Structure to design on (196 residues):
């Protein structure tokens, strides 16, 4: 698999930009571009990645994952089951850990985006999320859950008694775990279209 740095350089050359021109478009120094391309700086913030993709004139997914011929298309997240990764054509992705250093997740991850007309807390239309399927609570964070036969995205935590608590975006109260609630996957990365 090629590195993020080599993809930045390849895409920069395809866009016919020198380092200084790309740096101006992204709002960083040309030295920073050199460091990114060489791999000397491995962690690039989400905001800068979005700016890079826009400056290079490519989809964020191509910058993150590489050539379109090797990457699966994002799967549509819908409010009704089944889970998107249960589709026969679903392909997993490798999440570059330099993009999400706080998330060390073993196993498959899938690239999801809300289906047209679907609304989810924490994910806007056009956003991309990497979701690692799991039915086990491993750490606090944002999860895709099924509750009463519908998919929701909720912030999940555990109280002092070990009970799971579910919060929606902007919610002041957490919902307790019920028999109709189950974890489907943890969101390990999110790329927002509305960041710039």
């Amino acid at each position: 698999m090629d590195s993020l740095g080599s993809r930045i350089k390849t895409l920069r050359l395809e866009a016919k930009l020198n380092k200084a021109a790309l740096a101006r478009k992204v709002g960083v120094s040309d030295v920073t571009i050199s460091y990114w391309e060489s791999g000397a700086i491995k962690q690039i913030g989400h905001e800068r990645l979005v700016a890079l993709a826009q400056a290079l004139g490519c989809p964020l997914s191509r910058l993150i994952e590489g050539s379109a011929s090797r990457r699966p298309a994002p799967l549509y997240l819908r409010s009704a089951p089944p889970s998107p990764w249960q589709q026969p054509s679903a392909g997993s992705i490798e999440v570059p850990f330099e993009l999400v250093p706080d998330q060390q997740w073993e196993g498959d991850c899938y690239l999801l985006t809300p289906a047209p007309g679907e609304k989810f807390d924490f994910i806007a239309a056009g956003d991309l999320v990497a979701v690692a399927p799991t039915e086990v609570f491993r750490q606090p964070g944002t999860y895709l859950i099924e509750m009463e036969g519908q998919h929701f995205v909720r912030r999940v935590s555990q109280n002092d008694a070990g009970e799971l608590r579910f919060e929606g975006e902007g919610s002041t109260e957490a919902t307790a775990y019920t028999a109709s609630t189950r974890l489907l996957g943890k969101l390990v990365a999110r790329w927002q279209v509305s960041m710039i």
